[in-house]
Design brief:
DNA-binding, mainly alpha, elongated, transcription regulation, HTH-type_TetR-like_transc_reg, 9 helices, transcription
Amino acid sequence: MASATRRVGAETSATRALIIEATAQLIREQGYAAISSRRVAARAGLKPSLVHYYFPTTDDLLVEVSRHGADESDRMIEEALASDDPLRALWDFFMDTSRTAMALEFMAMANHREAVRKHMAEHSEAMRRRQTEILKHILGDRIARLDGFDPAGLSLVLAGIGRAIVMEEGLGVKTGHEEARRVVETWLEKLAPDQS
């Protein structure tokens, strides 16, 4: 006997959106280990069976929450790169603390959930390629002003320094942060367009 395919609720459903938001709230407040269909349902004011109707597995739900966060980050990065000062706006994005708690939870989650790790890796690769292409276009030959850098390396270094500072400051660590900020500011000044 063939098994019936399980029906999954519509992606445009308000109930589905409510489940995703309730899950994101729980992750921010209690960490990803607190996620269960019962807790999500209670937060959303729904029956647990509705969580399973829209998301047959916990991984399905967590990947969708990750996807929503990634879409928001992509939007913010695109806005930064389209601004009048794209390099500084990109640096400001990497230094923004508003997404730190979720990012740390999803990094921890990726260590334990293959589906989340796969989604995050695919998204990160795609976004890094996009940033690299935009930086190539924006910077052109000016990238040579930073000896040994290329657009992909610059994108990774800005993200890495920004994330390290944000995560460490969350712990109360500040040693070297001002010095690192000055290094980045020096790079940004060297890469600024010539004012003629």
